[in-house]
Recover the amino acids of this structure.
């Protein structure tokens, strides 16, 4: 491997483009800080980092696969870690709630582009990680199992966004507060808004994935 992320040059180009897009979004944020001496919405940078975590997870798993070191235990654990953090990728689109319309202000249009840059970077990072991990599931199990795992992941991602935005739970609460989280999860199954989030955001993620799949199918991305 000699220090490279992937054997595939195409995958390396995908990562580079995502880094450039993310860097552009951060640059827009930095420009606002410099011009207005204001750290408004600095937390969106943390959200972008969390959106990259599932991609980091898949990159590691891909390297293990390239080197022939993937075991079923590694595959399951890595997939669970990926699933725990994946909702952070589409979640960032909900940060538009912090954008207050001021149509006659140049700053508003700058902030709009900034938010969109972060959302696009996070969403693409998540979708690419989903596409790659689905390929790894198919490689190390079967196509049928990979599609079943994908559908379950999409449904759970909608619920994960609900937990993060509405109830303010975090990915690491799975370890930090597991019993409280399980108790809430069971209780939330009776809430109509829960199912609305699962269906709407789950479908959104599904359509985003479908767009990528329609372009490249089962080919390497």
């Amino acid at each position: 491997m000699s220090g490279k992320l992937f054997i595939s040059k195409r995958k390396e180009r995908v990562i580079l483009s995502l880094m450039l897009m993310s860097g552009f979004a951060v640059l827009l944020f930095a420009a606002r800080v410099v011009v207005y001496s204001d750290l408004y919405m600095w937390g969106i940078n943390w959200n972008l980092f969390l959106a990259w975590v599932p991609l980091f997870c898949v990159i590691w798993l891909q390297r293990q696969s390239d080197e022939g070191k993937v075991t079923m235990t590694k595959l399951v654990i890595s997939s669970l870690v990926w699933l725990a953090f994946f909702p952070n990728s589409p979640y960032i689109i909900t940060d538009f709630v912090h954008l207050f319309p001021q149509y006659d202000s140049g700053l508003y249009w700058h902030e709009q582009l900034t938010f969109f840059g972060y959302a696009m970077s996070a969403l693409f990072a998540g979708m690419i990680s989903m596409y790659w991990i689905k390929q790894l599931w198919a490689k190390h199990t079967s196509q049928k199992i990979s599609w079943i795992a994908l559908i379950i992941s999409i449904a759970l991602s909608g619920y994960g966004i609900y937990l993060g935005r509405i109830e303010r739970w975090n990915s690491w609460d799975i370890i930090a507060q597991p019993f409280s989280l399980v108790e809430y999860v069971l209780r939330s199954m009776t809430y109509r808004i829960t199912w609305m989030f699962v269906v709407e955001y789950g479908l959104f993620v599904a359509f985003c994935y479908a767009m990528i799949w329609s372009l490249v199918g089962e080919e390497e991305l």
Notes: The radius of gyration is 18 Å.
